[in-house]
Amino acid sequence: MKNSSVVLVSSQSSSKILKECFESLINLAEHELWVSVEFIHGFDSFWVPTPKEELSALSDIGIIDIGDDQEMIHKIGSLAHEIGHVLHDQSRLLSPVQETMFSETIAWILGYNWCLDRGVEIEKNEYQAQMLEALMLYKRELEWI
After folding, report:
1. Is residue 127 part of a domain?
2. Which residue, of 42, 90, 101, 144, has the fewest CB within 10 Å?
């Protein structure tokens, strides 16, 4: 669903605009992707798919947890990234590829584009900085394994 009007959000956007865009993206994700968006204490955010054996025709396909200690612009970026994981899991082309760095990178890209298609453009430099910071953390974790 492409949106003809786009709102650019950044750390410089008003708190009202950021909150409205965040709430709009949550609403769209819950209705279009059949997910539940919830909040957890802390800075971490993640996607928890519902196990296939527990899915029913009326259930959410999973939960996106958003860390509530993040700044609003980072909550939007985290939501976009977790939406990207949902899209990755649903993709016939991409879902078979579960290598960690690929999965994390593609989630950032898919989520950004999903938000943009729904009228919310996250300022590219800020989004890229958040993405690269997260990817570097994953890379360091993988080096320890």
Report:
1. yes
2. 144
Quote the pTM value. Answer: 0.91
**Bridge partner list, 35:** 62
Given a cut of 90, whether residue 96 has pLDDT beyond it is no
What is the Cα–Cα distance from 139 to 102, expressed in whole angstroms? 11
Residue type, 65: D
**CA-based Rg of the chain, rounded to a whole angstrom?**
15
For residue range 19-52, list pLDDT tens digits in order. 999 999 999 999 999 999 999 999 999 898 888 7
Whole-angstrom distance, CA of residue 73 vs CA of residue 109: 17
Locate 116 and state its tokens.
Answer: 């943009």
Residue with tokens 């430099």: 125
Q: Does residue 2 belong to any structural domain of this protein? A: no
CATH number at residue 64: 1.10.10
1 lies in some domain: no
Give the DSSP letter string of 57-123.
TTS-SEEEEEETTS-HHHHHHHHHHHHHHHHHHH-TTTTT---HHHHHHHHHHHHHHHHHHTTEEEP
